[in-house]
Design goal:
The chain is mainly α. It has helices at 42-47, 69-73, 75-78, 89-102, 106-122, 126-140, 148-160, 169-172, 179-193, 202-209; strands at residues 4-9, 16-21, 51-52, 59-60. Helix 5 runs antiparallel to helix 6 and helix 6 (126-140) packs across helix 7. It folds into two domains: 1-143, no CATH class; 147-213, no CATH class. The chain starts with a strand and ends with a helix. It contains ten helices and four strands.
Length: 213
Amino acid sequence: MSQEIVAKKCGCCGKVFAAAIPPLSDNSGDWFDLDQRPPEPMRSELYRQIFRCPECGFSFGPKDRSVPREFVDSHEYKTCEGNRLPDGIGADYYRFGMTALRDGDKGTAFASFLRGAWAFDDANDSVNAKKCRLRCVELCKEMPAASALDAVIYADIFRRAGCFGELPSELADKHYPDELTRLVMQFEKKKAAEGDENAYTLEQCFEELGIKR
């Protein structure tokens, strides 16, 4: 499948440019990772929603955001807060997270850093995926989990970032009312105790716990 070409306008320097949108993957899958990383082709759709201006380097998503040029030209922005992530979708999402934080939008920032981690996962770059997850960990500590699903996502992010003993006790030791959440949190705590940073799906979680669904 060929790439789509769309016209985008930069919210920093105002340049209008032609952006190539990558094709969707045709590798279908049924299971999400425990941090809600979707299977293809849903994951490719996320990667079609981030753009980088060829003129100034501003990374932005589908919705318009305006930032001053000095923000994009800053050393902090260019180096992804000193992480020096390689150019690509992962770094684009990280920088978009930085922009969201500048606007006080922690929820969008969290989602952007996590999508950056997923992009590095796809590139088999565990080092830079962890850098993105560590940024998510910082935001987890600032944003209380609003649901059982949030708690599961937080637990998976902490574990995959190597923060095995840092998951807040109110999440790790909470008595969740639904069996599914209890089982997944049991699995997450088991893997954290083993020092395991690998990705797992819900299916793999059930298999390891010996549960037939």
